[in-house]
Amino acid sequence: MSSKRHSIVPPVSQSGPKPPVQFSSSITIADSAILTGANLITISTESVIHPRAKIESLAGRINIGRRCVVQERATIGAVGSAGKITEAAVTLGDYVTVEVAVSIEAGDTIIGEGTTIGVGSRVGAGAVIGKHCTITPHSDIKAGVRIPDYSVVYSNGTRRVDKRPVAEQLKYKGLARQIDVLRRMIPSNPAKFM
Amino acid sequence: MSSRRAPRGEYIETDTGNKVARKATLVGTQNIMLGGKTVIQPEVMIRGDLIRSIQSSTSSSAAGAPPNNTAVAIGRYCFLSRGACLRPPGRHYKGAFTYMPLRIGDHVFVGLGSVIQAASIGSHVHIGARVVVGEFAIIKDYVRVLDGTVVPPNMVVPSFTIIAGQPARVIGEVPEGGHEAFELRELYKTVGNNPHPAPS
Amino acid sequence: MAPLPFSPYTFIQCPCSDSTLLARPADAKSPTGADAEEDERTFDPRAPRSNYSLYPLEYLLYCEDCHQIRCPRCVSEEIATYYCPSCLFEVPSSNLKSEGNRCTRSCFQCPICIGPLSVTTQETRHPDANLLSADNAATPHSGGFSLTCSYCHWSSTEIGVDFDKPNGIHAQLAKIRNGGESRLTAKERKERRKELSHRGDSAAAAAAREEIEEQVPDLENQFANLKSFYNSQLADPTAADNGLSTLGDLGFSSPSSLSRIMNLYTGGKISDNKAKSRLGAIREALTPEEGLLVANLDEAALISQLHQSEHCDTASMAQITSQPPNLGEPALHGASRFTSSLRPIPHLLRTKRSKRCPVCRHIISKPEPKVQTTRFRIRLVAGSYIPSISIKPLTLPGPSGSSSSNPSDLLISLKPVHYLLTFKNPIFETIKVTLATPAATPGRFPSKVTVLCPQFDIDANTDVWDEALKDNDRSDKSSRNSGGTTRQRRGTEAGYQLEVGKIWERGRNWVSIVVEVVPASLRLEDGGMLREDEDILEIPMFVRIEWEAENAGDDGGIVPGAGGKDKDQKEKRELAYWCVLGLGKIKQN
């Protein structure tokens, strides 16, 4: 079964010139991640970009905080329906997890620290999601919506306040461990994007 | 994608009858086990690179055998539709983080764009389109997951159930006469480099 | 208009909807119920009753002894196994009586979103200990355990419930109220009380008693109290001499009146009655100990709480109704208004059931009792006895028929369309199929229907290996010019004229025939509205199959259809039923 090649990854056309990037030396970015656009993409300490994750800076700067995980097929900075160009298209705080096939649209969109965006969700342009939120899979956060800290958003649009005692340290430690493992598994190739 | 027509046919057909689309993304192929006669359509993604980082205590003690690095094991006659994504589930275990293998039985259909992070999926399972199966979910045999379902992490779905909803709940039972509908032999024939037409 | 594309369907009518057929087991001569009048009556798929008798083929079973179709509505079910859908443990039926139909291990659902709850260690309990979290992790599970929803992260700590052990959560939860207060189960309460009554009336005992009574009686305890109270009333012999004999005659709630009434009907002696009628009526419960619960009509506290809470703190109807009954939470007496009083929901058990024919009582479906196996000991499904019917729109090259190729396309009124019906024979004998449809569909908008070939034979379902070989042969030839082209050729050869009485195509064990339909005009003279689903073109079709079966000795069972013929002889069998073909939607103009 095992072929000589370690992966079958069909090439993806990199449209346009490489966007300017500012990477921390400790990040992990898969060779097959896709970075496009003309504006600066900043990825901070120990963040992980999975294969086939897509970061577009067409509509402004993209800021990814520390120890963020962007999973495969997620699109950060998608030019949404609004299509407006802003200074900071998308800003992810520290410890943000963006799961598979999430789309975060550009336009001053902010995701707060410690928030997890569930599989297949969409975050509209200009939405501001607070800290430590949980967005369940297949949710649709409409453009411009503000979601307070510690919210749980269900896919049917209802919300709830997460009343658990705050346990940031624990969560952060968990994420750090996960990132530790991912760093060993995902061959990082930041040079490709520089 | 690339505009150049692939002259060699859309699929790679292996000795065991697997049909793997050239435009599928398989990361870490050495850790992906295909049982044979399995179809992997274009734009499918399988994360074979996310291997277990802690060997379970029982297997490591077993006569120093080489570590089993299988990340995704798929049985026979499975069908992964376009855009599906298989990814091993990960968790914290004894103070460390590790991915665990994702095991899929025979005759498992995975619909368009579904994301599977289950611990195990039995045989004769139909997963519709745009389904999310959360981490460490266990889906037993003869289960039908309707389109758009979100199976929450750790959920156990017993045999002969039909589930739907976000989060998933049991909404029905697979009737006795519906077992044969899970067979994917015919569907297997309809794709590949020289597909047979679907039977009328 | 139609967000979902229409996919053609076939529903089959179970004979149980015809009460006369159930009353007498399928007659040897006419399992078809071939009375003249019945034949003339066309089955109307839109009749209100039809909803309850039409099933897709997969849902139908077949009784080999009655030679008849059986549906989920008419079979009688017997529960073989109870099990928890989450831990997949079998629950003995004896436990069911004492513990109810929910899992008593540690399987719970989230009261907010019904996602599964898992037991998690609760290191997070002391937010002030954050800085010491490394040390905390070292000491094993210092903070106890809680149930956490893996979907929405609800945690039992939100209702103030945590556990000492990670297992036996159900038993632990029964002793904890929301907020962490401990709660006595009915059994404990009884024991405690007994203990107190044994000890004298010391001050300490009185205080303890007070403590018990002070606990708001929850539903479960109240029920237990009431039950024991009435049991003692029934058993108490002194109640009989309680005076009140005249009132007792009027009492309806006494065991004596009940027995008197029973005696009236069973012809007991009146003198006896008189003696018994002196029994007093059972009195009502008077104290909380006896199960009296005074309704709390003062809802001021509740209202003020509602004022202070947000929308997401109040429980939705779905959340309240999914709460199990007899919960230990006093707030759930009526219905809980706040999410803070919801309780984790123990998983409802599921069952494996065997099914019996309603007429001859033979088992027609029987699963293996073990929870983890998916095998069946007996599984007589209709699909292995009667032909399946699949529907495909037929496109013919021609001036008019070129556009309507998409099956999801709407049908255009008065424009003839053709459908290909493919019958697949599941049995090992050649079958003869006879079809009958009304010339026009029933209902307000009759569409015209013509079955071009109402009678044909289908070859036997031969060995699977033959199929594989033949399939290879055929597909080799036809893989280049697919089946579609052969059909087209045939259409042109016939000069775009479908031959009446000829089958369209045949294979090893299948036959395709053509049905011509002229969809009705949906125009209403009085400009009224269409009723629900009136734009769907449904054709009732009577299917009759005849075949010769080997009368292999059905030892033990009486074969109603056999009629005492020789065993070696081939025996003629027939089966007839109505089915409904849903072909498409007619376009509304």
TrEMBL record, chain A:
Family statement drawn from the similarity comment of this UniProt entry: Belongs to the dynactin subunits 5/6 family. Dynactin subunit 6 subfamily.
InterPro entries on file: DCTN6, Hexapep, Trimer_LpxA-like_sf
Keyword Cytoplasm: yes
Protein name stated in the entry: Dynactin subunit 6
Region Disordered: start-end pairs: 1-20
Cell location: Cytoplasm, Cytoskeleton
One Pfam assignment: Hexapep
Molecular functions (GO terms): dynein complex binding
GO biological process: mitotic spindle organization
Physiological role: Part of the dynactin complex that activates the molecular motor dynein for ultra-processive transport along microtubules.
Highest taxon in the source lineage: Eukaryota
The keyword Cytoplasm is annotated on this UniProt entry: yes
PANTHER family registered for this protein in UniProt: DYNACTIN 6 (PTHR13072), DYNACTIN SUBUNIT 6 (PTHR13072:SF0)
Cellular component, GO, one term: dynactin complex
From TrEMBL, chain B:
Main localization of the protein described in the UniProt heading: cytoplasm
Keyword tRNA processing set for record: no
CDD domains: LbH_Dynactin_5
Gene Ontology, cellular component aspect: dynactin complex
Domain of life where this protein originates: Eukaryota
A Pfam family hit: DCTN5
SUPFAM superfamilies given in the database record: Trimeric LpxA-like enzymes
Gene3D superfamilies: Hexapeptide repeat proteins (2.160.10.10)
Keyword set, alphabetical order: Cytoplasm, Cytoskeleton
Cellular compartments annotated: Cytoplasm, Cytoskeleton
InterPro entries: DCTN5, Trimer_LpxA-like_sf
Family: Belongs to the dynactin subunits 5/6 family. Dynactin subunit 5 subfamily.
Record-linked PANTHER family: DYNACTIN SUBUNIT 5
Protein name: Dynactin subunit 5
Organism: Cladorrhinum samala
Source lineage: Eukaryota, Fungi, Dikarya, Ascomycota, Pezizomycotina
UniProtKB/TrEMBL annotation, chain C:
Gene Ontology CC: one annotated term: dynactin complex
Compartments in which it is found: Cytoplasm, Cytoskeleton, Microtubule organizing center, Centrosome; Cytoplasm, Cytoskeleton, Stress fiber; Cytoplasm, Myofibril
Biased composition (Basic and acidic residues): 180-201, 469-479
InterPro entries documented for this protein: DCTN4 (IPR008603)
Major location (coarse): cytoplasm
Region (Disordered), start-end ranges: 25-47, 180-206, 469-492
Keywords recorded for this protein, A-Z: Acetylation, Coiled coil, Cytoplasm, Cytoskeleton, Isopeptide bond, Phosphoprotein, Ubl conjugation
Coiled coil: none
Homology family: Belongs to the dynactin subunit 4 family.
Subunit structure: Subunit of dynactin, a multiprotein complex part of a tripartite complex with dynein and a adapter, such as BICDL1, BICD2 or HOOK3. The dynactin complex is built around ACTR1A/ACTB filament and consists of an actin-related filament composed of a shoulder domain, a pointed end and a barbed end. Its length is defined by its flexible shoulder domain. The soulder is composed of 2 DCTN1 subunits, 4 DCTN2 and 2 DCTN3. The 4 DCNT2 (via N-terminus) bind the ACTR1A filament and act as molecular rulers to determine the length. The pointed end is important for binding dynein-dynactin cargo adapters.
Protein name: Dynactin subunit 4
Originating species: Cladorrhinum samala
